[in-house]
Amino acid sequence: MPRFDYVIVGAGTAGCVLANRLSSDPGVSVLLVEAGDADTNPLIAMPRGFGELLGDPTTAWHYPTRPFGPSRQVEYWVRGKTLGGSSSINGMVYNRGNRADYDALERLGNPGWGWDDMLRAYTTIEDNALGASEYRGADGPLHVSTVDGTDPLLEDVLATGTQLGWRRMRDYNESDEERIGYAMATIRNGRRVSAANAFLHPVMDRPNLTVALRTLVGRVVLEGGQAIGVQGRQDGQSFEALATREVILATGSIATPKILQLSGIGPADTLRSAGVDVVVDSPNVGARAREHRVFLLQFRLADDLGYNGLLSTQAGQQEAAEQYRTSRRGPLATPPCDIVGFFKTHPELDRPDAQIQVMPFSVLPLEPGKPLQIEPEPGMMCIGFILRPDSEGSIHLTSADPDAPLDIDTNYFATEHDRTTAVEVFRTMRRLFATAPLAQRIERETVPGDEVQADQEIIDAGLTIGAPGYHTIGTCAMGPNDDDVVDPRLRVRGVTNLRVVDASVLPIMVSGNLNGPVSALAWRAADFMVEAAA
Ligand SMILES: Cc1cc2nc3c(=O)[nH]c(=O)nc-3n(C[C@H](O)[C@H](O)[C@H](O)COP(=O)(O)OP(=O)(O)OC[C@H]3O[C@@H](n4cnc5c(N)ncnc54)[C@H](O)[C@@H]3O)c2cc1C
């Protein structure tokens, strides 16, 4: 049976960072196990290939939720399933969260995770096209860039944001104030920079690093309270690998609590009713799931601006594709969202509690199994969400069969904080589009439409027409207490030689999109592991 010092499960954002760091010592052998295949689909590299990748089962997992909301709909929580994981199919917005997020994480009893340490991790991993500064790095593996918009609508959005008191910034990661700017994105010269591009591909030829593709891990093998390896299937055959130092789960906030539960680590009652023998009764495995619930607003434009005219027809798509092929420019080279803003829902708050992302195009309602379709008439879209929701859902096993669906309880808008803040987020989004100069561009709101006015109608619209942020955290949260799933060094409580390093270990939401934060978190986790091994 193959034997390695470290077995890392999941070659997503965190897994790629860890594989890079741990294999940098040639004396250490590392196995990186990934359920998906190589990241060779050409749509991964093209920034606007995003919509197609989300619906494709060869590049994405689709986890159905429990029915929820007034229409009792089921939605699919999508995750990347290829080298790079979700960073290979995500929206590429580069965001780091606020100083106060990390300082709160440290105050919760997690030493070493405060802003000063995390800023060092960020500046080490970044290769920021704006150059190095006190807040930015320019020599790291993760390329970050920003582009000016290619449509006049976008300048109007920025000008209108400043009318609402938000500062226009070239690099909005430099500040935690109310601000707006062109999206910072993990894109280099019109090509996506996934975690695989940044951290894994450059080191794939290291002789001490082995990558096992198409290998689905079902459970961690535990012996006498110690993790000794993993078991699963590779191309339909059974697969097993041993770890002499550690097994590290980096399968993301949905699959990691699933694998722990399948391995007998989780809430005893849930495990028993699923038919799994209990090894460690760890009540919060799969609990404390926090997620951004995203509001969607769409508008019909008064003039023929935005990308719809070009991107909704076959001829236009071919023109854009040709421009992309020959110059790596144009709408297909830019991130799916062009503008990002952060604002306060109440002036007395000490920092923004809401985020918006604006796109100069609009889409038809999503049909399952089909890629997102652009509307033929001119339109634009804005999504927005509460930065730090405190409603908590859960992700639990329904069966000992690894192929059985999970029970995902979204529990959106369960707290008074989330409901009242969400309503203000939505009203501020509308205010932006009702303020000059942007207001002059708008003919009418098409989604959700003027009939949505009362607080409850707004919440219901968020539940029925909104979307998940794809930023779930908390399902294996770190903390100092016995019932926290992992300790502040991310070691799983109740067993030895088993760690979790991915989005699931965050107990509280980082303010914004998560790819940057998970990259820095994994970099920091590697610091701890290297220190411990020294
Ligand atoms: C559609 C979408 C859009 C997003 N947009 C943005 C954005 O614009 N900006 C941003 O900052 N963040 C964005 N995010 C969030 C961000 O990409 C994720 O939070 C981050 O990538 C999570 O990293 P991770 O390492 O925790 O998990 P992942 O990157 O999801 O990696 C998990 C890996 O484990 C593998 N795996 C799962 N189960 C198994 C198993 N049983 N055996 C073996 N391998 C397994 C998966 O295939 C995957 O490769 C988006 C996410 C999605 C899904």
Oligomer: single chain
Structural class: alpha/beta
Helix content percent band: 25-40%
The major pleated sheet works out as: 8 strands, mixed
Shape: globular
Terminal residue distance: 27 Å
- The low-confidence parts are none
Based on DSSP secondary structure assignment, what is the total number of beta strands? 26
Rg, nearest Å: 22 Å
Question: What fraction of the residues are assigned to beta strands by DSSP?
Answer: 15-25%
Instruction: Please work out how many helical segments DSSP would assign.
Output: 14
Q: What ligands are attached or bound here?
A: flavin-adenine dinucleotide
Kindly describe this structure.
- The protein is 27% helix and 23% strand.
- The chain has 14 helices and 26 strands.
- The chain has helices at 13-22, 42-45, 50-55, 99-107, 115-125, 152-163, 195-200, 252-262, 268-274, 308-311, 314-327, 416-433, 455-465, 515-533, and strands spanning 3-9, 30-33, 60-64, 76-80, 126-128, 142-146, 167-168, 179-182, 184-185, 187-188, 191-192, 209-212, 215-223, 226-234, 237-249, 265-266, 280-281, 293-301, 339-343, 354-359, 379-386, 394-396, 407-409, 442-447, 467-468, 498-500.
- Strands 7, 8, 18, 19, 20, 21, 24 and 25 form an 8-stranded mixed beta sheet that branches.
- The longest helix has 19 residues, at 515-533.
- The mean pLDDT is 95.
Q: What structural keywords apply?
A:
alpha/beta, seven-stranded mixed β-sheet, 534 residues, binds flavin-adenine dinucleotide, globular, 26 strands, 23% strand
What's a concise summary of this model?
The chain is α/β, with parallel strands linked by helices. The chain has helices spanning 13-22, 42-45, 50-55, 99-107, 115-125, 152-163, 195-200, 252-262, 268-274, 308-311, 314-327, 416-433, 455-465, 515-533; strands spanning 3-9, 30-33, 60-64, 76-80, 126-128, 142-146, 167-168, 179-182, 184-185, 187-188, 191-192, 209-212, 215-223, 226-234, 237-249, 265-266, 280-281, 293-301, 339-343, 354-359, 379-386, 394-396, 407-409, 442-447, 467-468, 498-500. The chain is globular.
